[in-house]
Amino acid sequence: MICFLIGFMGSGKTHWGKIWAGVCGFNFIDLDEAIEKQEGKSIADIFERKGEKYFRKIEAKALRNFGSLTNTIVACGGGTPCFFENMQWMNEHGMTIYLKTTGPKILERVLLEQEKRPLLKKMNPAELLFFIEQKLKERAPFYNAAKQILTAETLSEQTFGKLLGTLKAS
Known about the structure:
The structure is a single chain. The protein is of the alpha/beta class. It has seven helices and five strands. A five-stranded parallel sheet has the order 2-3-1-4-5. Helix 2 (31-39) crosses helix 3 (43-64) and helix 5 (103-110) crosses helix 6 (125-143). The two termini are 15 Å apart.
């Protein structure tokens, strides 16, 4: 089985993906890191030099390279589900889990690493919260199409294992 973790930046996809992969003996892939390795540039550099349109094309292609993997958790970028029918493709090829969290909680987390976030670099906290809440609304139809929705603040090391157990029992 392949599992795609989706949600807004700062929702914990990479954090929990690494933990759950370790606990369950799965492989872990961070889609953004895979793209950075493939392109030889940071996501911020790709956005700045080639633009979002280019990035979204290579992101969709990179995502589809993982379709035949098993026992793998893939942490997707926050916008991944919203382009090139990626959400539909992920639902057809694996388990999708939306790590849902609130705008203020996301703001708290992304302020700690704002420079690494290409879309957020030049915003003050008020602008950032407005931006986050607008993007959450725009992306809600994609995120809510996930097979499982988990509240990010209630997650634990055991969450993914319990979910796997429930899926195998049904």
